[in-house]
Specification:
By secondary structure, the protein is of the alpha+beta class. The protein contains three helices and four strands; from the N terminus they run βαβααββ. It has helices at residues 21-31, 51-66, 76-81; strands spanning 8-12, 37-43, 87-93, 104-110. The chain has a four-stranded mixed beta sheet. α1 links the parallel β1 and β2 (37-43). The radius of gyration is 14 Å and the shape is elongated. The chain starts with 7 loop residues before the first strand and ends with a strand. 23% of the residues are buried.
């Protein structure tokens, strides 16, 4: 099965809506023992030159009010990369029919 998960933190479409990503990721690192794993799946901002990115920016001012605090234009991958993990691996993907809530990243970061 999954083995020992005592050294694992899982985040699924959470970091788009927290007030302070840096603080949350710092707390994730704090609770993980060395070698522990942070597994994540998050929707993130589209690349800058895509039309959907412009739409995400336009919608962002309303999305957090109407969608449980979601901020569609967050560059969450950068926050994870800067959080001080020993290593970060991530993959980008899209989900059909998710419109402004694409693309997604999924991956793991090791403390």
């Amino acid at each position: 099965m999954l083995g020992d998960l005592s050294g694992t933190v899982v985040s699924t479409v959470v970091l788009c809506s927290v007030r302070d990503q840096k603080r949350v990721l710092s707390e994730v690192r704090r609770v993980l023992r060395p070698g522990g794993t942070f597994v994540f799946c998050e929707h993130v901002a589209a690349p800058n030159r895509m039309a959907v990115r412009l739409a995400q920016r336009a919608w962002a001012s309303l999305a957090w009010r109407f969608d449980d605090g979601c901020r569609t234009g967050r560059q969450t991958w950068r926050a994870i990369e800067r959080a001080g993990f020993a290593s970060v691996e991530l993959d980008w993907y899209r989900l059909p029919g998710r419109g402004l809530y694409n693309p997604f990243i999924a991956g793991r970061a090791v403390a």
